[in-house]
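Page 42, continued from yesterday. The earlier attempt failed because a stray header line got pasted into the input along with the sequence. Redoing it now with the clean sequence only.
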Amino acid sequence: VEGSGEANYDVVVSGAGPVGLLLGCYLAHQGLRVALVDPHLTTGVVSKAVGTMPRSFEVMDRVMDAGSLYASGRRLRSARFGSEGSWIGVVNISPAESRFQPTLVGQNIVEEHLARRYAELGGVIFRAARVKSIVEDELGVTVGVERFVYVRPPAVAPPLPEALTRVASTALKAKYAVGCDGKNSKVRECLGLGYEGHEYPQMFFLADVELEEGEIEAEGWDVAGGNGVLQADGSFFLFMHIQSNIFRTYYCATDMKTEDCTEEFLRALWEKHVPGGFPTKIKRFDRPQVFSVSCRIVTSYSSVVGRVFLAGDAAHCHSPAGGQGMNTGLQDAANLGWKLARAIRSGDASVAGSLLTYEKERRPIAEWVLANSDTNFSRMTKALPPILAFLRNCVVRILLYFTPDGSLPPPSHKGKMFGTGISYSGVGTCVDHGTSPPKDTLVAGDRLPDHNYRVHDSTQSADLHSLLGPLSTEYTLVVVGDPAVGVQATTAMSGIPNLAKRVYIICPEKGTPPIPPNKGDGIEVVQLTPEQSQYSKSLMDQLGLKLKGTAILLVRPDTHLAMVHRGPFEATALASNIKAAALM
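This time it went through. Structure tokens are written below.
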């Protein structure tokens, strides 16, 4: 009820899809009062996405056990392509340099795991409700909320229980508000922000199909996790093998009528166009949905006053080509979440200013995703004369035949598609100091590689992100190279706020003598030695360090590098640089 203690929060989030839920988890994990407002009656009602990328698992793992979610899906190890009645070829997908790999797991399953974790953290969700207004000032926001139920037509909303009809509308007070409410965002509308771009003429028909036991193997549909069939008229089919015997199927075409999108309609198209036909022994045909797609980006990620932000499809939307939609939104939430938590917990105006870096870092990523997906989608849906479609298929067949295993996605796109190569370098939010970084090496703004290490005098090893601990609002110092330099850096960081009281020193070789424990300021020094890694290069090599070289890394809560210092340093200057980088 408006005016009660229950109506006051640190952050109000509009939308309880995967983006809103992850943002809620990040904030609740840091002890903040969070309320999510969502018009759906349950979790996972509208579920379009199917591919979850390695970096998305990593950012979720900061606040939950992403391993259980990862285990529930299927690794995307290969993809098969077909056209005009025949299969063209299969391509194996190169592995990511991460403990997580690209995985086919339905968005509804992602939401279930996030919702469970959000509840464990004490988060609140107001369902069957939507934001209707936002008023902000320099101290906070007032979010108007009204009772509203959304169900996808032609379904009709069921009668609400009496407990949900007592209050038709109310107002929630908060320090900040975030719109994670999709491409038709009410929060964006309240802010009066433009949503620039274009609509596509194509429509998508989506359905989850569960096959009878043994049908997948019997019909040869265990060849690849992803299957795509392109037609000369610009239509296409996608079949993504997700959990157990379930495929998430898509059909994309122009001039498709919603009322025609039935199981019978789709089965007839499969029989006519899919090479060999799609298996007919279907146990369950579920979640039929029809939706349109757009390519748009908001004119600003935040309000003028700076108390309201947008994330996910509320800030940008694009075609499903490339499987980046949900993943880009999840990484928006991870970037914004720790910055909001830090601003609220500190109460320091200079720290709150770091919220300005959210759009600086995330807009260029969204612009790349939109441009890349728009190009791919336009190519996939371009109608071709039969002879040109035949020639295209011949070229693709030849390219797939001569493409070495593990060479796709191409290196120029792989890191960004998987999320592990996303970098915030070059936008002025992260800084390099000391010796200039060699070409093609790690720089400030890059993601910290998740190598495997063993703590000195321990028989157990773990990945570096796990060793850094769960999400916090503190920065962590990691020294790579000479242990003596690591001890000097530990002394230099004494008394700097916003730093974890633990420094990690990564020794380049096994057998390095133990480092004396640090006695000053309660700072713990943790010595790490490398174990067998899934990476092609060591962290020393990735930093471009020679045998005796040293680099000091300031790691942000989202495991991106806020600062990289290579080479010798003067203690006072290093301390000043660390302090400045931790305030950006």
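Notes: The mean pLDDT is 91.
Reminder to self: strip header lines before submitting.
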